[in-house]
Design goal:
Length: 285
């Protein structure tokens, strides 16, 4: 299995991403309304403390988000996103200067301010479609960028999403967005692809995308899987509360890893880190 893309990415982010093996993005949502951790970190101090916990549990990256993109959510203003995210990025880097901070935003102005504050990765759930200035910004910054698939937009994306062939369509979309990014000047070595679990997808769509993740891995870019605590896991296990979906999340991480994903965006770092250590040992035995 080709794990080279993750190694390349490690170098791109300035090689602060320790050791070989898969990378974990620890989720830090500084929003009042995220589906799982909304309202948990109401100020930069509590958010930075949470970042330290994520790092101590083994996160390679802290992914800071200032707008919920859960199904049915409304966008926030750019000013509000900036107000939520930038002080948190600064606070994390003050406490732990070596931290690789990623910012979950599709707005160029927020991305630019976060990069100026020291963030090193941009996580764009619109795959550079949300803001015409974003492609140029990440090209000029020379930073890694996550390009994620989403059908429609958060407000309405779960209203009967339909595909003829979800795996082929998501793969073709991501290939097209990677090409677009490269033609806008983004270095191919900085591109990360993400199937966008839960973004305009039914239970069957999510399962098919994880089951056939190789189709996306085969495009040759590092693949990030973001299934952590999502609704489809609760549908299967009966866990209504997002925080009770950790065991189901771990199953997605292990199977995603076996299929070649090398980055995992998770709320529960320790559980996923331990599962990956065991899975990795088995796969290399
Ligand atoms: N999922 C969420 C947000 N950002 N980014 C990537 N690259 N991939 C994902 O799957 C992804 C993402 C949604 O989860 P969460 O941040 O936990 O919740 P919310 O959007 O409600 O803040």
């Amino acid at each position: 299995m080709d794990r080279e893309p993750a190694a390349r990415l490690r170098e791109r982010a300035g090689n602060p991403l320790r050791g070989p093996g898969p990378l974990l993005f620890g989720i830090l949502n500084v929003t009042p309304d995220s589906f799982s951790d909304g309202g948990d970190y109401p100020n930069p101090e509590t958010a930075a403390r949470r970042a330290e916990v994520l790092l101590d549990e083994g996160a390679d990256v802290v992914d800071v988000g200032g707008e919920s993109t859960r199904p049915g959510s409304d966008p926030v203003t750019e000013e509000e996103e900036l107000r939520r995210v930038v002080p948190v990025v600064r606070k994390i880097l003050k406490a732990r200067p070596e931290t690789v901070v990623s910012v979950d935003t599709y707005r160029a102005r927020s991305a630019e301010a976060a990069l100026e504050a020291g963030a090193r990765i941009i996580n764009d759930v619109t795959a550079l479609r949300g803001d015409p200035r974003m492609a140029r910004l990440v090209a000029d910054a020379g930073c890694p960028v996550v390009l994620m698939h989403m059908l429609g937009e958060p407000k309405t994306m779960q209203r009967e999403p339909h595909y003829e062939d979800v795996v082929r369509e998501v793969r073709d979309f991501l290939a097209g967005r990677a090409e677009h990014a490269i033609s806008a000047g983004v270095d191919a070595g900085n591109i990360i692809l993400d199937p966008g679990i839960g973004f305009g997808k039914t239970l069957g769509h999510n399962l098919a995308l994880i089951r056939h993740l190789e189709a996306i891995v085969d495009l040759g870019f590092p693949v990030l899987l973001g299934a952590s605590r999502k609704r489809f896991i609760g549908t299967i296990t009966g866990a209504e509360e997002a925080k009770n979906r950790v065991f189901g999340t771990v199953a997605t991480t292990v199977l995603g890893y076996e299929r070649g994903a090398s980055l995992f965006r998770v709320h529960d770092v320790r559980a996923n880190r331990e599962a990956l250590a065991v899975a990795g040992s088995i796969l290399s035995a």
